[in-house]
Amino acid sequence: MKTAPSINQENRSVGVQYDYIQQTRVSKINEFLRSKPVRLGKPIYEYRDYIRNGLHKSVRQDKLPDILSECDNKQLSWMERSALLTQRMCEAEKVVIEPHERIVFTRTLCGIPPIYSVEQWDQLIKGKSVHELGPISNICADWGMVLSQGLLGRKAIALRGLQQYASDSEKVSFLKASIQTLDAVLELAGRYARKAQVLGRKDIADTLAQVPAKPPRSFREALQFLRICHSVLWMSSHYHVGLGRFDQYMWPYLQADIQSGTLSWPQAEELLAEFFICLNKDSDLYPGIQQGDNGQSLMLGGVRPDGTDGVNELTWMAMRVGCELSLIDPKINLRISSETDLELLVLASEMTRKGLGFPQYSNDDVVIPALVKFGYDLEDARDYSVAACWEFLIPGRGMEVVNVGAISMPKAVDKAIREGIAHHEDFEQILARTKADIFLQVDEIVREKYNLILPPAPYYSALMTDMLEQGKDLSAGAKYNNYGIHGACASAAADALAAIKMHVFDGSDIRPEDLISALNADFVNYDEIYKLLHDESPKVGNNETLPDDLLVLLFDYFAQACESYPDNGRGGKIRPGSGSAMYYAWLANKDLLGATAEGRRAGEYFGANLAPSLNIKVNGPISILKSFSKIDYERIINGGPITIEFSDSVFNSADSTRKVGMFVHTFAKLGCQQLQLNTLRSDILKEAQAYPERYRNLIVRVWGWSGYFCELSNEYQEQIISRAKFRM
Q: Which of 141, 342, 490, 543 could covalently link to 623 via disulfide, CB atoms 3.0 to 4.6 Å apart?
């Protein structure tokens, strides 16, 4: 096996060319944001530590409002119950204004009360399927539109709709429910304004007199508007609530303040820092597979809907502030292209150096054409963001369920190998069996979700594009209604096929019956076979033809299976993706899958998303990019990042972040779709397992999100420790 090359060795020619390009470009970004370090005031750091230490939790309430009894007594419809939930939750919140706060709202209710009993719920969904916890989740509001109109503007549209659709009882019911929720948010803001007045906080009272009722007049007002309206979505039982293209819809407010002299750059960064800290107040209340899996993702950069460059000063500021605060929220995503400013990538790499696990990168050069080919309007495709992890969506226009399940590619391959060998079949017949099983797995997921039922969402609908205008609740669908399925653990599956192709069918190293015996024995007493499969077989990630071609073939099978369903039951299609989410741990369970032919023992974890198999020799990070660049991303468009872990020794040199920035540029230049980088030290992670109290703030990338390592369950901690760590 070759010695692992450095990024410099692998990427020298690309780097020279890119340096030349950068020297010929003139930056439009303010020099302060390029060269001055972030210097937040002491109160900001104290506020961050106050939230980190959970001191804000002292105001939380133990008791939730009894909404179910009221719903039953009044015999309310599902739509009416959903609206009442928002109203009563807003009413039950205590008003909390800390002395140091400028952007207010602290959630005090620690859960969501039911609006149906278990028996009522079971009857309501009988014969239907539900997604995850049931309520609409993992989508993104049209925050720019809502900010520009204010909640009173949205309410006015709903009131006009009551007249326009007076003869349509369903539309009238929805519009009344939406108005009820908007009024509840306005009253909540009003209570905060009145409390601020009593406390002598005229600045807060004046802010809340304007927002969220009316459009914000300043950056501070825009942040306050977003804080309240975003929080109420969670209080309405929605979760994984995205923040969308933050630097696009917030930039006009910041730009106006800077130009008028209302704010200086340092003052603006302090306001943004406070907003980011606010997002960490409630993260432990949000549902997810693990603590931190809360979906508070925002997108930066990329082109505007008209195709012009959307990178602005707020793009830079958000990354600077996120890096300085070193918190798990918001999860920062960055849209880039082959022409993205290297200095921006260097700044992003500084976040990687600090071990935050973000930004996650999406390549506009690949994503936008793929979305258009799939059926998205060009302007919408240019305006894409991501859901909680990485799946693509259009803010305000997508009622897409981006994670309805995952197929297990290792399971499909393992079953095909075992059955094919039992029937004395050749390699092509095993491939045919693999394809058939992938089709079968997709069919099972699609059939289960074909009758998916989504609960009413009157408040969320009011924040989406054209829902109030059409008198239409989100549960009935929006402009885009596609489903997403993960194609999980593909590298291991391709490695297994490559191993048997080399050693069973093309060579005579391993007899078919001995392979099956070794798998059944979990390789106990089959050391030679294990060595051939694990150590002496070609692997995805080394830019080798055989496994990479098989990887591409597996995704082609997957795409064909999804494309065979022109309608998902909700007027959308099925989007295949290359992510794994939590399935890299779930699908490795011994009860689901034993030892596999790439040389993996039963129970050993798979790599996360697009990553080489764990515990194998890999040439280097550039070879990983080259392997995964071969996938046809015009067909695999639900997202799923190449996931690479660096050793912290990568950042020992003075120019280390620049090298990593050039590596990210190479990712874009090679035509890959998404990328996430993490910086790990196994010894530190193991010490954190033993002494969690010493490492409460240690952040790691888990699958499509970052969380505190010590808050993860052991299985996820162990999988992260086992990931490969590359050096320069």
A: 543
Tokens of 680: 């790990």
Q: How would you classify the pairing of strands 297-301 and 401-408?
A: unpaired
According to the model, what pLDDT value does residue 324 have? 95
What distances in angstroms separate CA 690 from CA 126, 684, 693, 698, one per listed residue? 47, 10, 9, 13
Q: How far apart are CA 273 and CA 394, in angstroms?
A: 26
Cβ of 191: how many Cβ atoms within 10 Å?
15
At 171, phi and psi to the nearest 5?
Answer: -65, -40
Q: 459 near 233, Cβ under 8 Å?
A: yes
Q: What is the pLDDT of residues 613-646, one digit of tens each?
A: 988 888 889 999 999 999 999 999 999 999 988 8
Beta strands in 458-591 (DSSP E): 483-488, 574-577
Q: Which of 708, 719, 703, 715 is nearest to 406 (CA)?
A: 703
Q: Please, are residues 691 and 659 in contact by the beta-carbon 8 Å criterion?
A: no
Mapping DSSP onto H, E and C, the string for 367-396 reads HHHHHHHHCCCHHHHHCCEECCCCCEECCC
> What is residue 183's predicted lDDT score, i.e. its pLDDT?
98
The Cα 531–Cα 323 span in angstroms is: 43
For residue 639, CA distances in Å to 85, 123, 185, 495, 512 come to 34, 35, 34, 22, 36
Sign, Cα dihedral of 157, 163, 164, 168: positive
The parts of the chain modelled with pLDDT lower than 50 are: 1-26, 728
Q: CA-CA distance, 625 to 618, in Å (whole number)?
A: 12
Rounded to whole angstroms, how far apart are CA atoms 156 and 4?
Answer: 63
pLDDT attached to residue 388: 87
Instruction: DSSP letter for 57, please.
Output: G
CA distances from 134 to 263, 458, 581, 633 (A): 43, 15, 19, 30
Distance CA 107, CA 231 (A): 8
Q: What pTM does this model have?
A: 0.92
| Beta sheet of 360-363, edge-to-edge order | 244-245, 297-301, 331-336, 360-363, 674-680, 642-647, 725-726
Burial class (CB in 10 A: 0-12, 13-18, 19+), 203: exposed
Phi, psi of 349 (to 5 degrees): -65, -25
Pair 443, 506: CB distance under 8 Å: no
pLDDT value for 15: 38
The model's pLDDT over 579-608, given as tens digits with 9 standing for 90+, comes to 987 777 888 888 899 999 999 999 999 988
